[in-house]
Amino acid sequence: MDPRVLIVKRAAQELKDGQVVNLGFGMPTQASNYLPPGVKVMFHGENGIVGIGPKPKASKACADITNAGAEPITLVPGAAIMDLATSQGLMRKGYLDITILGALEVDQLGNLANWAVKRNGKWWPGIGGAMDLCYGTKIVIACLMHTDKNGASKVLKRCALPLTGARCLKTIITDKAVFDVGDNVLILKEHAPGVTLDEIKKCTEADFIVAKDFHEMQFEEAVAAAGR
Amino acid sequence: MSKLGNKVKTLDEALAVIPKSGARIMIGGFVGASEPTCCIEWLIKNNIHDITLITNEPGLDGFGRAMLYKNGLVREIISSHVGTTSESTEQYLKGNLKVEQFYPMGTLAEKIRAGAMGLGGVLVPVGVGILDEEGLFDLPEPKQIVELNGKKYFVEPAITAPFGLVKAWRADEIGNLEYRYTGLNCNAIYAMACDYTIAEVEEIVPVGTIPPERVGTPAPVVSAVVKGLSLEEHDELYRRHWLKIGKLAPEPAMA
User: Fold this and answer.
1) A46 flagged as catalytic
2) Overall pTM surpassing 0.90 (yes/no)
3) Which residues are CB-neighbours of B127 under 8 A, at least 6 positions away?
């Protein structure tokens, strides 16, 4: 399985029936294609929607029905539209149940860094809605490749990049492992198919303990649901 | 001019008040969706330059606001982001586009909403302990923090602007605005935070046409109404763009 697809499929298993969900850009957006059977959720869009439905046919696309990436969408029955301040308020105040976000770095305190890298001596590209999501959402899940291109761990003792959320993460999902965030230590819950504990130890900078029920990620047949 | 007079103007009449250089302008829209397309094109055509742009994020690659950066017309952006278009990224990394600090999107929305509501500012807990870290931004003064009921907040001053460009679905002649679906985004908040707000709309209708409870921005807020693209042209512009970038699948019936 493509490592990014593996991450996305595993992340989708975190979604529970009846939740209000925000999926971040990139990998997390794809999680909507792998909802577990029987799970119905409402997707929130930062621009001011609860109830994002699948992509429309080209002839039905409307310039004023878009998600936070300015992509054409449909609205599911029961959807609601609101202004931007209200939409951000839903995030900050804790009306969203869960958010799945991409990450540049995570650490054993449950910190998430995903808004800035240094380019030409400047922080780039910017925060968008990610800090509001990390601040207010009940469950924050980070998705990332376990290591960078050079094999260096992105699961760290302390994030080096500016944070998006402090001590906000509940769970970290990588192409190699699933960790829960404990008290200044990660708890290794699952390994990807074919990945050994030794391998995970070698590529993880963060301190972690191994859960009693440490096991391989399980992939049941997922039902492709409303894509974003 | 009466707040309830006929405000329908041509683009030239409505936008001529904007200074050629150094204007502070607020522009509505969300990542390129529901932004005032024709007003933005007018700014470019008339070489309105050294703009300080207040906007949610820079926009969408190759589209609308992105053309402002491509033409080097924006000196500073006050926003949550600088990287949603390659045009803004390029100017920023070259040092041609100033960003003093990045705001969380919800913080920026509330700062502008405070401006719209006549408040001095807002207290925001998001990012305390992160965005005030020394050396992160080069600010003239450090971000002010207050503690209230045992919790720390940034004191975030309100943002207003002399000029606002927003997009709505339709307006009546005195400037009541009705928004369509997610076209609401930040447009209604921005409209109210500016001294002189120009609303670009797809339809202009007689007074009394828009049901009062459907008015998203009340007429006294709006200074000028301009006719932009028609509803059909607007949908078509985006459909073509989405087909081009692969966000829509072509249908056999669509020639």
Assistant:
1) yes
2) yes
3) A131, A135, B104, B107, B154
